[in-house]
Amino acid sequence: METTQESGVQTLEQIQDFKGKYPKQLWYLFFSEMWERFAFYGMRGMLTVFMVKELLLPESDAQLKYGGIQAFIYAMTFVGGLFADKILGFRKSIFWGGLLMIVGSFTLAFSPKELYYIGISFTIIGTGFFKPNISTMVGNLYRDGDARRDAGFGLFYSGINVGALLGGYFCIVVAKNYSWNAAFALAGIGMIIGLSIFIFTKRSLGPIGLPPMLGKLSLAKIRRNDIMVYAGSLLVIPLIYLMVKNSEYTDYFMYTVGPLALLYIFYEIMKLNDKAARQKMIAAMVFIIFSIFFWAFFEQAGGSLSLFALNNLHDTVAGIKIDPNAVNNSSNSVFVVILSPLAGLLWLWLAKKKIEPNTVIKFGIGFLFVSVSFYLYYYTRFFADASGKTSLDLFTFAYLVSTLGELCLSPIGLSLMTTLAPKPLHGMMMGMWFLASAYGQYAAGILGAAMSEVGENATQTEKLMAYTDGYKNLAIYALIAGVALIVISPLIRKLMHDVH
Ligand code: GLN
Question: Are 299 and 441 in contact (CB under 8 A)?
Answer without folding.
Answer: yes
